[in-house]
């Protein structure tokens, strides 16, 4: 799992020493990170998927070290804002670990897309508030569209699910359901077929 450090205010990591230093090697056992149930897992993979599927942009505010799994964590976010003291790197091979998933596939794609800002929290909060003033549906669909190519079939499924959700909110989408409930044939002729 990622570092168990408490979050600071506004979602930033607590303190300025490290954003996340990756998996705690003292709890890594044979097969993964061992919880109280003694079962080894790689729960961070679920966290990465949740970040990718969250229907609004996720911003990593990095102060200090973002290494190993912490480096991958910031890469799966939609935007990284880096403080002047941010340090990025991969440490997996040094501790007998690696990430053949997002950690490998994203790194080459994302190099150069880390945004340095001196006033980390103030500037980021202003930017995030501006971003969240935009249409939540547009943000949701745009994010899933941007992720679709990299996430393969799962990404396309996420984008398709968002399109279905939008369709269900239309009169046309409800005609079929209502016709079924009314035990009548649907009348889709009243809807324009756009080119």
From TrEMBL:
Transmembrane segments: none annotated. One of its GO terms (molecular function) is 1,4-dihydroxy-2-naphthoyl-CoA synthase activity. GO terms for biological process: menaquinone biosynthetic process. This is Naphthoate synthase. Belongs to the enoyl-CoA hydratase/isomerase family. It comes from the Eukaryota. GO terms for cellular component: cytosol.
